[in-house]
């Protein structure tokens, strides 16, 4: 605990850190917390899993007091991340309780209005925050700490105008922190416009390359799903994430894994927030072992103990590959990334290999039986309700 105390963290937070069994500060915590606690503006280059929540959380908990209005605002790209950060801040602040509210779209707005009235700290997605501002249901005049979390992602998702609008509505006299895996020109512009002499810190990605094995299988298009089932059955892995490029494929894979007796759940942007929360909750508590997801849905989720990543579809952009494999081999654990490469993945997969300095070993595809598939709902309408094996599917998955 001494090395956390040395960073200037106050006793109630130290006590909560102890309860979390953190042994020593992560690199980003070590480098940024002293400056953050001094009230400096900070630009931190750090990825998911670096421990950044505690870095900005320490300052929020230290400098905010219960019942004095909304004093700290954290903007974050996704609803899941907003939920995750709010849970983490609730844990870190348990010995100095604060009213912490997560505010995001896709759920009813009225309960959020109630929470906003009494919140000391708000973690919000930009769209919903703007909505509250336009309705006059949030008061930003007391904000003294503003955090832009996963700022590159917010820019990628087209939220930058909303973010700027929100920044301008906060008091000028404040501390601003920007966390981002990459600092693009757009973010440099934001920081020069809205931050005061920001100090830059960066930390390595938490993924341990030595502990990560990356392999690929060359597989015919029509055997790809069967190979996935075979590998999942063979390996009896811990928690597994399967990445797909589309919502449709995500649903297809999750449905058919369940159809083949493998507990799996899908998570993508087309699902209601309740169902997404439910899927994540089941995965967290290990009720289901396989989470099938799109990149956006998985971004920033902090799920411990993911042993295997499967790229069911090769990512379209090579930086997505790094984000995906970053979900495993974290915090010193072993991890495996498995790429199922069919002819339609060749182009994307070769781009990944070309653009990234990664070692991916080719595996010999095992002999496998073709598994049964459930017909997707719209095909079922066409072909009748027979389900089961169909010789020539209209679409290739
Ligand atoms: P974050 O990057 O803030 O999402 O944190 C990633 C994960 O690392 C979370 O599960 C944290 O609880 C955990 N974590 C944060 N700081 C530490 C630390 N100093 N030691 C061990 N785990 C940590």
What's the quick description here?
The protein is α/β, with parallel strands linked by helices. It has helices at 2-5, 11-19, 27-38, 52-63, 79-92, 110-118, 126-135, 151-156, 160-169, 185-194, 224-235, 247-259, 273-284, 295-298, 318-325, 346-355, 377-383; strands at 42-45, 72-75, 100-103, 121-124, 145-148, 175-180, 199-202, 212-218, 239-243, 264-267, 290-293, 306-311, 335-341, 361-363. It folds into two domains: 2-202, P-loop containing nucleotide triphosphate hydrolases (Rossmann fold); 209-388, Rossmann fold, CATH 3.40.50.
Mean of all residue-level pLDDT scores: 87
Q: What Rg is obtained from the alpha carbons, in whole angstroms?
A: 22 Å
Low-confidence stretches: 383-397
The helix count comes to 17
Instruction: State the major sheet.
Output: 7 strands, parallel
- Name the overall outline: globular
For this structure, the CATH topology of the largest domain is Rossmann fold
The CATH class designation of the largest domain is Alpha Beta
């Amino acid at each position: 605990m001494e090395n956390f105390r040395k960073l200037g963290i106050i006793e109630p937070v130290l006590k909560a850190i102890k309860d979390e069994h953190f042994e020593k500060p992560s690199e980003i915590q070590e480098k940024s917390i002293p400056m953050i606690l001094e009230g400096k503006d900070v630009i931190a280059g750090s990825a998911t899993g670096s421990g950044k929540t505690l870095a900005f959380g320490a300052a929020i908990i230290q400098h905010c007091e219960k019942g004095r209005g909304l004093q700290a605002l954290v903007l974050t790209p996704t609803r899941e991340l907003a939920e995750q950060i709010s849970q983490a801040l609730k844990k870190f602040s348990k010995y100095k309780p604060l009213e912490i509210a997560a505010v995001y779209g896709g759920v009813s707005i009225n309960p959020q209005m109630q929470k906003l009235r009494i919140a000391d700290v708000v973690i919000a997605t930009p769209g919903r925050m703007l909505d509250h501002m336009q309705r006059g249901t949030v008061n930003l005049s007391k904000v003294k700490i503003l955090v832009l979390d996963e700022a590159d992602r917010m820019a990628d998702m087209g939220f930058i105008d909303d973010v700027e609008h929100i920044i301008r509505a906060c008091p000028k006299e404040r501390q601003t922190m920007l966390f981002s895996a990459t600092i693009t020109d757009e973010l440099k512009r934001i920081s020069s416009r809205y931050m005061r002499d920001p100090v830059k810190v960066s930390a390595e990605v938490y993924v341990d390359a030595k502990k990560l094995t990356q392999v690929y299988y060359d597989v015919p298009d029509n055997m790809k799903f069967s190979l996935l089932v075979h590998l999942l059955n063979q390996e009896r892995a811990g928690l597994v994430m399967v990445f797909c490029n589309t919502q449709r494929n995500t649903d297809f894979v999750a449905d058919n894994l369940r159809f083949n007796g493998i507990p799996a759940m899908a998570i993508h942007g087309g699902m209601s927030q309740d169902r997404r929360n439910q899927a994540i909750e089941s995965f967290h508590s290990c009720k289901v072992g396989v989470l099938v997801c799109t990149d956006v849905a998985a971004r920033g989720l902090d799920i411990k103990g993911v042993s295997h990543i499967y790229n069911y579809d090769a990512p379209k952009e090579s930086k997505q590959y790094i984000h995906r494999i970053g979900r495993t081999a974290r915090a010193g654990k072993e991890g495996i990334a498995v790429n199922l490469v069919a002819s339609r993945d060749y182009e994307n997969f070769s781009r990944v290999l070309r653009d990234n300095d990664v070692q991916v070993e080719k595996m010999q595809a095992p002999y496998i039986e073709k598994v049964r598939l459930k017909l997707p709902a719209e095909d079922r309408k066409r072909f009748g309700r027979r389900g089961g094996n169909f010789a020539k599917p209209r679409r290739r998955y």
